[in-house]
Amino acid sequence: MKLWLAVLIASAGCALLKFAGFVVPARLLESAAARRTLEALPVTLLSALIAVSVFATGNHLMLDSRAAGLAVALILVAIRAPFLVVVVAACATAAGVHAL
Amino acid sequence: MSEPPRDDHPTGGETRKAAERRIRNRALTIGISVTPFGLSFGAVSVEAHLSVIQVCLLSLALFSGASQFALVSVIGAGGSYFSAVGTALLLGVRNGLYGARINALLRPTGWRRFVMADVTIDESTAMAVSEAPAGHAARAFWSTALTVYVLWNLATIIGALVGNAFGSPATTGLDVAGPAAFIALLAPRLTTMRMRTVALASGVIALVTVPLVPVGAPILIGGLTAVALLLVFDR
User: Which positions in chain A touch B179 (Cβ < 8 Å)?
Assistant: First the structure.
């Protein structure tokens, strides 16, 4: 019963959080600063997500095979490699280093 | 509908067909790369004593990988339901922030807002933002959202019913599929030193707070602080 409650509250809560962004009043977003903030937010949030998903596990900082995969991805993106190549090469590198 | 194309996009002059093919291939790559996580989620959830219906409901309704994993991991580890739900919600906050940007970019109306909100996640947002300068934000958003939604839910139910036969994402290197894809998608937005510095600052700030605050909070702290820095610098 408690488990059902947790599943339902988490689902409803996360759905509400997602919807919250769509009901921000338009007049709040008219200023130049608000527009710049809004344009930059996905970029900074995804950057933080990349950092945390590569260099952390739970509350601990980690330096492991994921860092090698990230380095390869950065190099390939810098030389404008195709998207699929970036993703596959990063995974292959991380798997290779992990197997060492 | 969406913001007009800008001239600064590196793919300027490409045909519509080429853009459509690029978006379809990228959406498919992202969809395939989340599949092992879906399998793993289904398997882990059943081990944490969730019923198959509960597991599927999470993927159908909650639909946000990080929040879903946090919820079942805390429950599976014997943590309180309170902290399980709290962590899931904290990880879900960034979807709301993405939502504000997606709403401004695509301006959905009526029932479309609900559907769009429920599939506003890291992957669909990254693709929409990446394709926005070329004017393909809507196509990129929907292609990615639907591909990930279908494959994530299929993978979840298979994982829940037959377990995870593919091993952990770490041994296959798939734990960097997401970060690698996001870097490639953000690249067109990181052409100026100013944006690169801000993105780097966001990552560093997030990492500094990792040992100090609950899981989920570092991403928000990094992302919001970096945007605040950007506004201060631009003054």
Answer: 49-50, 53-54, 66, 69-70, 73, 90
